Write a sequence for this structure.
């Protein structure tokens, strides 16, 4: 199947307050966000025509920008409205949403105090690729060559573009060796996350997940924790050592793109996706398609 480049598609993108033709949504090569990483973004999903937990994503986008020292010149409510507008314009019922904010090209150098802040929101089709049954096969992860940095060395609570460079390197390395993804340790050598998804272990019926103190506390992560608790499953957030994988019966990842994805292998450790993974896959699918999200979530 031919790959359609993302710069050569039909449709519109919301760009600095207006809907513009997709192919005209461009930035200059001397944009600060490209050279110095002063760029933040979100990943959101549209289910049945509505964005799941839209306001939480818009709030995190604004907070990420603040952590990088700039303010998006649109309020959270305005970002929500712009997102709904572009989703409506696409007519897509199952889609992916990418809001991105960055410093422009007025100044080129480390300092960019007077650069304009831009915001764009793009939406493209993202169908459900796997049935719950197909997901239960479990994906394979290798160990990532890079670790998540300490919070006093990088703005780790921001969904900043620059923080994903080591994720791309790690995922490419995994794919080149026949794995689907890579599992990252943190700066202390503890379990952290995959390259774009949070990690959960099921040990003797209890769910354990690393404390998100140097990586994102994902919106999907929090949603799945709430769903597990509603089922009466205990969820423990704590530092987890790599050797504790040997005690886990099930392992799964969560994220906007991953949703709830069981893991069958991490390095030399193997797991059998079971009842906890299956239950949370079904619960999450029901939650994102609930009529409560067919408008605003307030």
């Amino acid at each position: 199947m031919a790959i359609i480049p993302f710069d050569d598609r039909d449709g519109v993108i919301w760009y600095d307050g207006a809907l513009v033709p997709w192919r005209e949504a461009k930035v200059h090569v001397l944009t600060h966000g490209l050279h110095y990483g002063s760029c933040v973004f979100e990943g959101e999903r549209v289910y049945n025509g509505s964005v799941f937990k839209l306001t939480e994503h818009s709030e995190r986008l604004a907070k990420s920008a603040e952590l990088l020292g700039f303010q998006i010149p649109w309020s959270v409510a305005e970002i929500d409205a712009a997102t709904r507008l572009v989703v409506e314009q696409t007519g897509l019922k199952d889609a992916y949403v990418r809001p991105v904010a960055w410093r422009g090209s007025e100044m080129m150098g480390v300092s960019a105090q007077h650069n304009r802040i831009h915001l764009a929101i793009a939406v493209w089709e993202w169908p459900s690729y796997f049935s719950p049954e197909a997901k239960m096969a479990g994906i394979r992860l290798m160990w990532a060559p890079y670790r998540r940095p300490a919070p006093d060395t990088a703005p780790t609570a921001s969904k900043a573009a620059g923080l994903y460079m080591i994720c791309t390197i790690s995922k490419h390395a995994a794919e080149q060796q026949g794995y689907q993804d890579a599992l990252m340790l943190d700066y202390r050598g503890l379990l952290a996350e995959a390259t774009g998804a949070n990690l959960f272990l099921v040990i003797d019926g209890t769910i354990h997940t690393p404390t998100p103190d140097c990586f994102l506390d994902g919106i999907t992560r929090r949603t799945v924790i709430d769903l597990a608790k509603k089922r009466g499953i205990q969820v423990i957030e704590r530092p987890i050592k790599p050797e504790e994988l040997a005690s886990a019966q099930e392992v799964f990842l969560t994220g906007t793109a991953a949703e709830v994805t069981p893991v069958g292998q991490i390095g030399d450790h193997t797991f059998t996706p079971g009842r906890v993974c299956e239950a949370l896959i079904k619960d999450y699918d029901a939650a994102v398609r609930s009529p409560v999200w067919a408008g605003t979530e307030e």
